[in-house]
Amino acid sequence: MAIAAAQRTARTPADGAPDTVDTAAYQHAFDTAVAADERIEPRDWMPDAYRATLVRQIAQHAHSEIIGMQPEANWITRAPSLRRKAILMAKVQDEAGHGLYLYSAAETLGTSRDELLDKLHAGRQKYSSIFNYPTLTWADVGAIGWLVDGAAITNQVPLCRCSYGPYARAMVRICKEESFHQRQGYELLLALSKGTPEQHAMAQDAVNRWWWPSLMMFGPPDDESQHSAQSMEWKIKRHSNDELRRRFVDICVPQAESLGLTLPDPELRWNEEQGHHDFGPIDWTEFQEVLKGNGPCNEQRITQRRRAHDEGAWVREAAAAYAAKHTGDTGETGATRA
Amino acid sequence: MTATGPATVPVTAALALGDDALVLSHRLGEWAGHAPVLEEEVALANIALDLLGQARVLLSLAGDEDELAYLREERAFRNLQLVEQPNGDFAHTIARQLYFSTYQQLLYAELAAGTGPFAPLAAKAVKEVAYHRDHAELWTLRLGDGTETSHERMRLACDALWRFTGEMFQPVEGLDAGLPALEARWLESVTDVLGRAGLTVPEGPRTGAWSAGAGRQGLHTEPFGRMLAEMQHLHRSHPGASW
């Protein structure tokens, strides 16, 4: 691989600071690898800004997985059938698992999970704003699966080809599970839509509330997106926000028809000329407000996360103390109290 | 299963074992989003899912799983009082799991070795339960032999739940297991784990007038009614609906 080769020929001096000639060689090797669609691996040289961008993005993604457990866990204890309860518990468990893969991917960039969690708890790193909306009825579980996971997949499938190897590989596995969740959400809504009039109304209400926030998940319009251009150049990102949003709308329209539900946008119609659907204006003021912390659940989500972390501190301390006492001990052969 | 057929399934025993699994699964599900560390989000959900799977098989032997889970009144549930106890702190959850999984592993190993109606389920479930017990044992060791705080919390939890452990060995109609022998092995196993964790075996009674066969007879503790209210509310709000 090009970068490793460059490192062999231009090694960083022992005092750590590479001289300018070496940096230029590294940069060239990096640029060449990215241009050739090669993967950048953890031990490869990479520009500081590339590393920082990845840490920011992967951390935000990991945080979204663990905060995203909350709105759905809200319904585990009330799931209306044992089959649905099993599906929902497995889904929330998958999200914890995704959090684990992603924090591990971030660790390959030299940032620990603890450090990232501290930043999340201190409000210095973000998670997807979509989870700042409440799950008010059972149908919201279906709407999250169909729309939120659907939007996430649209965003994430291109990340399986992201230039950073560990992130790309984590995304392959995550996308497989997410598409399963998306189908389960669709199937849940279908059962409601074809159920009693009350169930149908519940499904329509949930779709009405989740549609616009789902469209906001693709981020601000291209001309206002802060990080997009550089990320596309680095092949961390492969498609623009607006492009992905339009793709998502095109996928959802026929699915809504099959569900027997409507999407809450009177301007939504097929544009023959463009080969895409036109849709109404997105309320970016709402987006900015939720982003700033003024969404319906921002406070609640972060408070619960901090509380779980703080209340669990004694458990983590006990595990660390036990491990320290039993270094080299599997823990199964007996504890000798020191 | 075909050799025995549904007609020969002892309904009382299927409900007892099925309700244990259903109720404990529900309690563990309450941890989602609240666990002390991400690995435990995965582990507790995993145990909850295994138990829910067992509950669905067992309740289906006794009737319609959803009717049984969602439409019975509190007094018709046959689970142990132990499994309905609120999660408390992580130490309480672990103590409850250690007591229950040790019992379940011994019971299911015996049922799996037999030819009765529960043998096929028990043969599959005993492998899952062995993992649940290991998980509880490892945490009992970590908490008991971790810090002073964790030791004290674990001691309190083991003590608090001790009085619910005698009920496990009360006879259940249709459950063909040597309960007195199981009880002796349960005590031996739990004593061993607590000892290695630096904890002493609680001294209080394990059974008494308040609990002898109580959950198995449909007599539950106060928190159980609230748990069922939450669990059953949505299903009951839409009579006859499919989900």
UniProtKB/TrEMBL annotation, chain A:
GO terms for molecular function: phenylacetyl-CoA 1,2-epoxidase activity. It is an enzyme of class 1 (oxidoreductase). Pfam families: PaaA_PaaC (PF05138). Keywords: Oxidoreductase. Signal peptide: none annotated. One of its GO terms (biological process) is phenylacetate catabolic process. GO terms for cellular component: cytosol. The keyword Aminoacyl-tRNA synthetase does not apply. The keyword Cytoplasm does not apply. Its EC number is 1.14.13.149. InterPro entries: Aromatic_CoA_ox/epox (IPR052703), Ferritin-like (IPR012347), Ferritin-like_SF (IPR009078), PaaA (IPR011881), PaaA_PaaC (IPR007814). This is Ring-1,2-phenylacetyl-CoA epoxidase subunit PaaA.
TrEMBL record, chain B:
The keyword Nucleotide-binding does not apply. GO terms for biological process: phenylacetate catabolic process. Keywords: Oxidoreductase. The keyword Oxidoreductase applies. One of its GO terms (molecular function) is phenylacetyl-CoA 1,2-epoxidase activity. GO terms for cellular component: cytosol. It comes from the Bacteria. Its EC number is 1.14.13.149. InterPro entries: Aromatic_CoA_ox/epox (IPR052703), Ferritin-like (IPR012347), Ferritin-like_SF (IPR009078), PaaA_PaaC (IPR007814), PaaC (IPR011882). NCBIfam families: PA_CoA_Oxy3. This is Ring-1,2-phenylacetyl-CoA epoxidase subunit PaaC. It comes from Streptomyces echinatus. The lineage of its organism: Bacteria, Bacillati, Actinomycetota, Actinomycetes, Kitasatosporales.
